[in-house]
Specification:
Helix content: 40-55%
Strand order of the largest sheet: 2-1-3-4-5-11
CATH topology of the largest domain: Rossmann fold
Number of strands: 12
CATH architecture of the largest domain: 3-Layer(aba) Sandwich
Radius of gyration: 31 Å
CATH class of the largest domain: Alpha Beta
Distance between the termini: 79 Å
Strand content: 15-25%
Shape: globular
Number of helices: 12
CATH superfamily of the largest domain: Response regulator
Number of domains: 2
Order of helices and strands: HHEHEHEHEEHEHEHEHEHEHEEH
Amino acid sequence: MKKWGKSSLLLLLAAFMLVVSACGSKPADNTPQTGNAGTGTENSAGAENSDLASLKGKKIALIMQFNQGTFSAQYIEGVKEQAAKFGGEVQVFASENDLGKMVANLDSAVNQGFDAILTDHGEAGALEPGIKKAIEKNIPVVAFDADVNVPGVTVVSQDDQKMAEVTLEQLAKDAGGKGNIVKIWVAGFAPMERRQVAYKAFQEKYPDIKEISAFGNASNAQLDAQQQMEAVLTQYPNKGDITAVWAAWDEFAKGASRAIQAAGRDEIKVYGIDMSDEDLQMIQDPATPWVASAAVDPKDIGRVQVRYVYQKLHGDTTDEKVVLAPTYVKRDDLPTPPEKVNTTDLHKFVEGWGTNQQGLVDWMTELEKIAAK
């Protein structure tokens, strides 16, 4: 074995002391780092802000089956308002209640490369091929009031059965559980079909309330309802022949109310579904027969739809089904004329109106700040 000399031992000891000294000069693991590197939190926040900034300027297509009446106008207003807060732009494709044109509009939006697509009404069988094309091209889609069943698509709907139930129950209560009624409704639309489920249950529950007439047309809905209601009033000319009218859409309710008011048949009451500023003015006016309606704020519907499509653009996991709870609005809740109320300030008189927060997530507040710059 090799023997170590005194000088070798001294050299070895010196080297050991040098290593210890060097190790001791390093900062401890929990020592804050300074300089250009920054902290991990700062890097994460910067990356998140960069991701949110990329959402600014998105182009959104709104494909509508029909665009008539003040409800649709306020719904579009809600879509555009929320998109603008996020820095987005909306282009509306109106289809004049032509399903074929709606399908063509959807295909056009996909081919034009919009960043996101919203659909309003339509039939699932007709829309799903175009929606699938959009998904294949990574264009997120959020549908409203169409029973679309495509993976990755969020479907927003009102609680249609509940809206029908509350209005029909009020009708039955006011009528004392008996009488003759007119139903205005049209088949072929997902929300209408859901409202019809509640109507059938109502008929079974109140056998002494008889349906004496039923009609409805989605094209020129208000005018058609007015004309057909005029014919029914002629057919049943005596007071007491008709107790009430149940209208499954506010356009129907407006038309029927105008016919009844013009005929001086103030004993007939109208109960509707959906709500707009024009509707509120009629319900508020004691001279009109329209006394109540169940609805979701149309602006809220548009806002919620946009929030969910931005969640998709952000890469969030989103709900497949989103159901919006309705609010019941009756004349007794509203101030008496000449004071007028609109959907913007209706929440002052009816609890729950216009305050829907569904679809909002924390990062959206920061996105609004970025979009405002």
